[in-house]
Structure formats: structure tokens, C-alpha cells
Amino acid sequence: MRIQSISSLKLSETFLLFFQDSNEIHFRVKMTTQMGKLKKSYSDRVGVPMTSLRFLFDGKRINDDETPKQLEMENDDVIEVYQEQTGGHY
């Protein structure tokens, strides 16, 4: 699967990010795009509510207002996606 979320941009202004869980989805994004927008696009694409997913980069949870520039992301970096699990006891 491949999603190009931003078209008509010069390649020098964009880079590829990979969201990886059991799927692998590619996004071409600007360095200034807020991660919340990408997270929403990903969750819509896989049909899972954004609130039930965790997005991590370099082992740290990604906030919606962060940008790839702030996270010091580079071309072909991978964002790990995990389904939230609620625990309990019997």
C-alpha cells in the first residue's frame, strides 16, 4: 500500500516516512507537517480509530503537534505503530 498525502511538492521539500505494523504505508511529507495529520491519515487508511493506536519514533511516543523536523526525522525513517491494549485483572 502506498499513500502520497502531499502531491505537487518539489522532492527537495518532502521526504518519505514509513508507518509499520502488520501493514507498511508510505507517506511523502513536508518537514513542517504536524504528525497528528499523518496519524489521522494512517488510522483512516487502516480503518482503526486513532485513539486506539500508539505511534513511536526512536522508541518515544509521537505527539500530534510535533513535526518531522522537530523529531529530526530523515528520508525512509520508520514510525512504529502499535494497537493500544487495555489491561485488567481477574
TrEMBL record:
Subcellular location: Nucleus
Keyword annotations of the record: Isopeptide bond, Nucleus, Ubl conjugation pathway
Signal peptide: none
One Pfam family per UniProt: Rad60-SLD
SUPFAM superfamilies: Ubiquitin-like
GO cellular component term of the entry, any: nucleus
Name of the protein in its database record: Small ubiquitin-related modifier
